[in-house]
Amino acid sequence: MKELFANRMRASFVVLGSLLIVFVAWPLLRTVTAPGPAVLWQTLLDEEVRDSILLTFQSSLIATGIAFACGVPLAYLLARADFPGKWLIEGIIDVPIVVPHSAAGIALLMVFGRRTLFGQAFGHLGIKFVSAAPGIVIAMLFVSLSLLVDAAREGFEAVDPRLERVARTLGASPWRTFWCISFPLAWRSILSGIILMWARGLSEFGAVVILAYHPMVAPVLLYERFLSFGLRYSRPVAALMILICLATFALLRVTAGRKRGEA
Amino acid sequence: MTARGYLQVRDLWIDLKEFHLREINLDVSDGEYFLILGPTGAGKTVLLETIAGLYQPCKGQILLGGNDITAVPPERRGIGFVYQDYMLFPHMNVAKNIAFGLRLRGIDHKTVEERVCAFSQLLGIDHLLHRSPRTLSGGEQQRASLARALVVEPQLLLLDEPLSALDPETREGLQRELARIHGELGTTILHVTHDFEEAITLGERIAVLNNGRVVQVGSAEDIFRKPNSEFVAHFVGTRNIFRGKIRSEDTRHKVLCLDEVDVAVVTDLVGDAHGSVRPEDIIISRESLRSSALNCFRGHIIDIADRVSIVYVTVRVPPDFVCIITKRSLEEMMLKEGQEVHITFKASAVHVF
């Protein structure tokens, strides 16, 4: 505490920094505390709200699962191998962060829409993307996969490749080395990537709303209630969403904090 | 299983980013302790990693026990590897680190435990088995990583500057330990270092590596007595190195007995040892000097080599001592080849190792 106010410069930095903290914390606190526990409980009992929250969680989980299965191997390659065009791959992975998410939704619609090649092919399998849960999943996947891939990549980069080499000389195959050495050592970083991506998926609005207004994910439901019934009716849903996201975020900070504490 | 640790490297070429190794040829006999000596950046680590199978050479062959293993993946080569900075698996305790290779071989739990126990005793770390690597000192970590490599009984053990990260005292202890373990297990060892003294203490033979090429192979004696190039001579440094036995005159005085003379030294070592005297620490005089220096020998000059401002004078006692004097001293003393002179140096100027 003393360090914060050690001199005048630091004290003024404390004031400036605090403005930002209050700017973030105050609205959140207002939203969460305004409805009162009884109203929040009522909202949770609303079937439409519950279904949409469940749908949001599930879709984000599936998106994260897909990103995990394909993104962790990709992250490993990016951390370990040099190849021509690597910069391009790295760029492609990070593009979803910089494009407007509604534009991302439009882009996905161009490929997975009803009349497109992909859309029709999947249609034959009984999977449709527009106005359906798979659409929500791909929208979430598109906008949040960078988070998981980048975290996993950082995790693998922090593992000394010579640890893997020693494992190889001790008799471990490349697969064995990955599962016994590289993956467990990068796990904390991958885990925070998973949580971050999942939380980002939960909050996605722009891309999802273009592919699938219905069935409604929580952010879309919130938007709809705000437009149709106004602030009063959308507030409890917002409070609930914020509380849930806060809980996941707390989880992330705990895991990341433990990682730092160990190193 | 004769000669299972016989390593042959045939015309090996490696290109890897900034490292280029050219025409590497090595023959390491079964059970030999072989040293590769070279300056930092000479490509020593890359050479070892290629022998271990971690990199593919662009050309050439590697044979172990007579079998061509150039295309064999590292996990099936039976070659152990120890890095300078230990590379213990940080998410496993010492026992699990050592057991890693055994577990992969599907050896039953009890045997694994016995072997881990035996090798940790061999390296004197049996009291550390349940500790996490990050709580160990450098010397202890290096012992653990040696145990981990040795427990799977490799045909060949590669040591990449295994002592360089340690403080001098620990280094000396572990160096002796390496020699002892090599004697006990008889594993072929290929050890890489930039430290000349480490090389002559441990190595039966030494290969000098520079700029990606092996520039000289031979016994320690050959390398420093007959360097075949300017580089080797410079890298090894012109120094007087002798091999002998340490004997105690009485409790205070120790001497290093060479074949012809006894040299007074200051050391705690016993038994066989090397002694070195820097050429600039030796004083040449025409008359015998009465001084505090314990070492005073008479000999005659067999060679005078002029190097611009300094002069290398070789005095045969025997053995031969190389001394550095200034050109001015040479002229003032009017030294000539064949002349009889006295050389003097302090016991503390002799580095014993």
Would you mind describing this structure in some detail?
The complex is a heterodimer of chains A (263) and B (353). With 263 residues, chain A is mostly helical. Chain A folds into two domains: 1-33, no CATH class; 38-262, MetI-like fold. Helices cover 82% and strands 0% of the residues of chain A. Chain A is built from twelve helices and no strands. Chain A has helices at residues 8-33, 36-45, 47-80, 86-98, 101-112, 117-124, 133-157, 161-169, 174-202, 206-211, 218-229, 231-262. Chain A starts with 7 loop residues before the first helix and ends with a helix. The model of chain A has no long low-confidence stretch (mean pLDDT 91). Chain B is α+β, with helices and mostly antiparallel strands and 353 residues long. Chain B has two domains: 7-236, P-loop containing nucleotide triphosphate hydrolases (Rossmann fold, 3-Layer(aba) Sandwich); 241-352, RNA polymerase II/Efflux pump adaptor protein, barrel-sandwich hybrid domain (OB fold (Dihydrolipoamide Acetyltransferase, E2P)), CATH 2.40.50.100. Chain B is built from nine helices and 20 strands. Chain B has helices at residues 44-51, 94-104, 109-122, 138-150, 168-185, 196-202, 220-225, 230-236, 327-333, and strands spanning 7-16, 19-28, 33-37, 59-64, 67-68, 79-82, 156-160, 188-193, 205-210, 213-218, 240-248, 254-257, 262-265, 271-277, 283-285, 295-307, 310-316, 320-326, 340-345, 350-352. Chain B has a six-stranded mixed beta sheet with strand order 6-7-8-3-9-10, sandwiched between helices. Chain B is globular and about 75 Å long. Chains A and B meet through α8 and α9 of A and β6, α2 and α4 of B.
